[in-house]
Amino acid sequence: MLTLTNNDKQQLEKLNISTEQVERQVNQFKTGFPFSDLIAPATIGNGIIRFSEAEVQELIKQFDEDKQYYDILKFIPASGAASRMFKNIYSFVEEYKGKEIPSDFLRKENIKPDSIENFFLSIKEFAFYEDLKAKMAENGKEIDTLIQENRLVEIAEFLLENEGLGYGKLPKALLKFHRYKEISRFAFEEHLVEAAQYSTAETEDGIVAQLHFTVSQEHLDIFKKTVDEVVPRCEEMFGIRYDISYSVQKPSTDTIAVDMNNEPFRNSDGSLLFRPGGHGALIQNLNDLHKEIIFIKNIDNVVPDRLKQTTYDYKKVLGGYLFKLQQQQFEYLNLLDEGCLANDEIDMIAAFAKEKLMIDIPIYYKTYNEIEKIDFLYGKLNRPMRICGMVKNEGEPGGGPYWVRNSNDEISLQIVESSQMNHKDEKQEAIFQSATHFNPVDLVCATQDFKGDSFDLNDFIDYNTGFISQKSKDGKELKALELPGLWNGAMADWINIFVEVPIITFNPVKTVNDLLRDNHQ
Prior knowledge:
The chain is of the alpha/beta class. The protein has two domains: 23-81 and 274-520, no CATH class; 83-169, no CATH class. It has 15 helices and 20 strands. The longest helix is centred in the middle third of the chain and has 31 residues, at 308-338. The radius of gyration is 25 Å and the shape is globular. The model has no long low-confidence stretch (mean pLDDT 94).
């Protein structure tokens, strides 16, 4: 039994965290999380759908014709700090601050694209270059002169620190990613441009695009201020209005940290240490929106206008396929809800569940009577649904699509991270190595039932898919717990459909030099 002081209980009450929640998390540290039980990789024809060009055009048409009947929103997790993008630059400053940089530093041969040397040699190619140059000029510094004099640390500090652009302290969303003839666009701004193509609805006030950003509390004000400055430009460009909302990760989703003996870790003042629960906490933000159709995409997965058309097309493909499946799903759920079905109707619904919704029909289903079959199919069909884009695996990190068996012996399609797998098990490792695709976080979700009521998304989380990592604070080692990931365990019990999408739709920016790639120029 966990022993909590009165101060602890007051702290939990302030954070809106229950004692039971803390006790469950402490027990999870003690027991650990089970590895995912991989059955097979999802591949083309066995869990991943590949559409022909004719089918692509048909689904785009369906999306364009049907979207007027749906309440559509684009959801962008945007709280991630940009500091990790500049890890190499921080290391460079730490190494050379107050020291002389070798005279041949920028004249080496065979400079790698992801190197710090290439960052400085290509600095004029970045969309933020003009802002950096102007900021330095305000302080009497000329960037070309500093490069010639090898005073590179000063340039790096002006980029990263608050007296300059402060990019090392901002969220990735507020960095300028792409340069055009007249302007340079922020990462979030490219999402506004995208939303104008597929996340719109005709209202009495004209065409409206709905977006929702999750933002860290510390950046909320500057985020809103920057968005407000940019929105009029985008509204004029597309002749639409933007309806933009924000939320922050709830303190109630923070998880307790423990020491190496699995006892609650305490700060120097004696209070309990809680840490953010990872992006899986955002299932609560998603749950609060009560929207019918939600597109989800990472903040850094954007491209310049010249490459956007494929993204637009396949967003509509995923959305059109969701509409198509859901319309049939709702028709069948109405029949199941009425309860009086002939055997051939039950068989037809079971075939739809298996062949189109990728729902595993267990062997024992054949032993059910009519009522049991109806109950089984109703339970399997009456769940939130998501269509997940999958790209061919070309070495990028990310969760992969697999057939997985859960603790109830049920088999389903899941997105599984490498950290959830037992790589020491030869069979599991062989399945991992044979995967052909991975998940670029390209989702369209349906979160309301056939009666028009919003699902409680908490009912579909697999709490056994969290993750434990080791951290430190004040020189002391600790264990941290991450909640089931937003597109992993937090959506584990949804109806999951995987569709192959072109690799060009996946262009993440993990380091600042990624912005030098052709797909971001």
